[in-house]
Amino acid sequence: MYVLGITGPSESGKTLLVERLLDSLDGQIATIKHCTHQPDIDTEQKDTARHRDAGATTTYGLADEHGWFATGETRSLNETLDELAPSYDYALVEGFHWASIPHVELGSREGNGKTLMRASHGDSVDVKKLTELLHDTEPYITLSSLVHRIKQSTKSEYSGAIATFTGRVRRLDGPEDSPTEHLTFEKYEDVAEHRLTELCSELESRDGVYRVLAHHKTGTIPAEDDIVYVVVLAGHRREAFDTVEDGIDRLKEEVPIFKKEITVDDEFWRHDTPS
Q1: How many other CB atoms are there within 10 angstroms of residue 161's CB atom?
Q2: % residues pLDDT > 90 (the chain)
Q3: What whole-number distance in Å separates Cα of residue 141 and Cα of residue 2?
Q4: Do 142 and 225 form a contact (C-beta atoms < 8 A)?
């Protein structure tokens, strides 16, 4: 799923740009808007007010003709993106200027992530060019989205097992160590992606293995967040377990990815290989 943030002050045309993108993009598109207050929802779902008064953290409204809506108070942007990633091709995020996501800046408001384009107003944005730039960014991939993709394999009917591996940022190696605050990952773009594709193809050539997907994040990842995923679709659990273990070992050995570790006391670069 490609994620695009749209930042700008009031009257900068953020919502207008969202509407233009909705008309231009192909695929399943989710929109997320930051609201400073509980929005008014144009619906006749009478239970909505009652559930809000009862203190529910999230209220869902379902309607036969008008789809669904959800409102709540305790939902983060990352939690929302994680849930959307398996089912959507794009997420248009309006108003979260502090989020570290690719974004277009309107007016004088600066975003926190990578700036793809700047414009004075939403109606002056070259939507075609913006879409091209968005497709050059790293998609928002989660373990759930990879599992969803692998289940769509044409050979899924022969599979009795899906094995997964998730690597995450370890905060401590031991009680006496300096805590890790975050890791920053960089990779040789063309070389790393080519080698990762080759690796998955080689693993898929094994007997009883039908599909292998892997993804390694880049950029800055805070402690206790996910870094890397490997997902294997196989006929039986033994082939799945063996392949997912070999997959992560070979990824760390063979794919050129480097990491900068930031602790409370020091920082240093190193190739991301097994110790």
Answers
A1: 19
A2: 51
A3: 9
A4: no
Distance, CA of 142 to CA of 228 (rounded, Å): 9
What is the Cα–Cα distance from 129 to 141, expressed in whole angstroms? Answer: 23
Q: Are 260 and 183 in contact (CB under 8 A)?
A: yes
Query: Which tens digits make up the pLDDT trace of 98-129?
Result: 888 999 999 876 767 789 999 999 999 999 99
- Percent of residues, the chain, with pLDDT higher than 70: 80
Contact (Cβ atoms closer than 8 angstroms) between residue 102 and residue 5: yes
Asked whether 227 and 186 are in contact (CB, 8 A), the reply is no
- Cβ(141)–Cβ(133) under 8 Å? no
Per-position DSSP letters for the chain, written without gaps between them? -EEEEEE--TTS-HHHHHHHHHHH--S-EEEEE--SSPPP-----THHHHHHHTT-SEEEEEETTTEEEEEESS--HHHHHHHHTTT-SEEEEES-TTS-S-EEEETTPPPSS-EEEEESSGGG--HHHHHHHHHTSPP---HHHHHHHHHT-TTGGG--EEEEEEEE--S-SSTTSPPEEEEEEEE-HHHHHHHHHHHHHHHHTSTTEEEEEEEE--EEEETTSEEEEEEEEESSHHHHHHHHHHHHHHHHHHS-EEEEEEESS-EEEEE----
Q: Which two tokens stand for residue 110?
A: 């600066």
Which residues fall within 8 angstroms of residue 215, CB to CB, at 6 or more apart?
141, 146, 228, 229
Count CB neighbours of 85 within 10 A: 22
Alpha carbon distance 120, 125 (integer Å):
8
Indicate whether 49 pLDDT > 60.
no
Q: What's the CA gap between 182 and 125, in Å, rounded?
A: 35
**Entry pTM:** 0.75
Whether 230 contacts 248, CB under 8 Å = yes
